[in-house]
Amino acid sequence: MYMTTTISLPINEYHRAEAYAKERNLSMDDLFISLINQLTLNEEYEKWSMPETNSSPLSLEELNARIEQGEQQFENGEYKTHEQLMTELQHEFSWLK
Asked: Would you say the pTM of this structure is higher than 0.85?
């Protein structure tokens, strides 16, 4: 699923962000995604999105164990709610207003 959004910001702030992205050889979309990833739990993101090298496919038991672990972490409040993420984004990127 994809989401499209429009962001309005002062032209000087846009140029500042554009220069920052260009220095790092990123598109503006890549920059935005990179900044969002910094606000999430990078360690968990990398753990779950990057396959282990030379790993075999998960068995049904291993898959269920990972799902249960994720559900338990969610119940323990180890993930951010949508409202928490949006508050952090608004604070971090106040220049994107």
From this structure: no
